[in-house]
Amino acid sequence: MTVSIRFSTVPESCKPLQLEIDSFWTLMRSSLNEIEGPSHCWLNKSAITKDLSGKDVVFLVVAGAFIEDSTFMLEKVKSLQQRYSSLNVIGFQHCRAFSSDVVRSRLAKIVMSEYITFPILVSNKSLSEISDRVGYILFKGMEGSLLLHEKDVEIEILETAIKDLLVQPLEQPGLLHTLRGTWVKPLDAFKQPYLCSPLQNLLLYFPGCIEVDEVNERLFLSDINHHRIIVFDGNGNILDCIGSSPGFEDGEFESSKIMRPAALFYHDSESCLYFVDSENHAIRRADMESRTVETLYPKPVGNKTQGGLLNWIINKLWSTKVVSSNSDEVDASLLFYPWHLHKSLENDLFILNRSFETLWIMDLLSGLIKEVVLGSAKILEMCGPLILEKTSLLKEIPSNNLPQNIVNKFSIEGNSCAGVVSSVATFQDNIIICDSDGQVVLKYNKKSKSMSSFNFSNFGVLGLPYWLVSPMESVYADGFGVSGVHVDHIQHFTLLPGRIDIKINVEIPEDTELEEPLNEGCIWRQTRGTATETLVAKNKAESTEKIGVAQQWYDELDDLASLTEKENSKEDTTSDTKLQDGKICIDCAVNTSPGTSEVIINAALYLRIQNKTNNSKMQQLTRLVSNSNPSSKDSFQTEACARILSTSNKTPEELVFLRPLHVRLKINSRDHPKAENSKDIILTESFVEVNVLLK
């Protein structure tokens, strides 16, 4: 096998390294079909594995970056993933004690906090040159060229090397502000960290940054891995939610898309919330009065579409935006995974990355970057007082009350816990702290000297989370929904056409309890085929119309287009859910015409586990994770998520989790019965009751 090797520094001999590369390939290929073996385990590896034997397959192996703090290195890799969808990224970590709970918990936390979506191979087999190297290995196929780079290599060098290896014609890089632009993709195009996916069904998933509005007594929380900002009051009552799903799109709160929002700054006189959209490399602004989100940086241009239904459908199916771009090369002055945000006395925004190595100074009015400062020493000269003001709050709290992840955060130039500067704030007589490992928000009362967590309520404001349902267009396109979606109950009915009233009785798992009554905002109903949904409050005597599949498609699109207007309506709505005999009852009604149809009901049930046994904390957390993610059969995945939660000082019973409900009713409607004159049809009414047991 002939291999071309290029180093950032030329080695004395290439032969020993070539043998190790061969050994690495043997290890990786032999372990692909086993999640765990005697000398290895795969983390973050989904059930779907690409063919790795193709001669044109390009691989980027990230070696040794998962034990030490290599945030900036991993950010480079993620940006290349965004730009080149055909690039296969794999992590490799040598660890003698790879099966220990401590190591696995540490790696799982990195996957969660860095939002890593590629698989990581952990092995106790020592490949000295590779095992001891923290850097990148780039190669093409089994017999292609090999390139090794140290971890501090510039991203332009890596990108040039990737372009050289990609098959012709060269893949066009995705817009990353190039690195400049606004990129908007369908929901299915955004990958999630597979290893930590059960944590997605917790109420909060990596809550990392907090801001307060003392005047209006509001708090703003970046629920980072849920891609949303939650607005709540001092009692934990949820008031509003900014962001609907991962992506990059301006608009009203319910339709806007953001990607891992981080630090926030509330401008009282403007009634605007400025926030970092970290994975989009952008600064966004939420107008709290008009309830709209706009992008402050970068400025999108030319986002004009022709009118008409067809263009509206196309924009919904695959949204695009045209943005300004002066160069195809990466501009050092552009935002690259920003994280922290502060306002200076000169009406500028100070924007910093997580490692405090880069500071962008942005003019608040124009949204233009005025200056870029590199190096933590220079940054501390300018931002030291701001950082110290926030981190000094932690000194007022006894160390045994602080979350472990706060205590262990890095310090820069004597500023301890600098990494959590955006995770701490004061509100009234409390110090607010985000516990991103325990997935809770804590408050330390300075008068009573006590620590507690917020008990959130009013979950209906959050609506139905994006990951529980597929977009309506995808449902129609796939025929029977998206494959792999967990279904709790499927039932078939043969009924006469007409009005069908449906009552669904849901029994939650026996070791759980409902946190609050199911709100109508947590329920999503959809009909397909010859059925159309009817509001329960409507008059049952209204006429039943025959509706074809094509007409139903356009009717659903019209409903979707006016969804935001309906949600903002001030009219009172009557809840169609109630609690009877310990069961949750969901009511709905449909009109059907002859033919086949399907009714789909999704709901978000917010629960707590009950401790009715003498189980240990880890056993309870494992049960909690299993209850929240019924589709997962991966015991290692469940255990890894439970260990992340175990670092919190909170008991398992204090954690609120979401149990998704997915019910599908398939209806076959016969022909309309005829009246005595054999011309008129008889309108019928039916009633069905469905019992669902959640396990």
Automatic annotation (TrEMBL):
InterPro entries recorded: 6-blade_b-propeller_TolB-like
Protein name: NHL repeat-containing protein
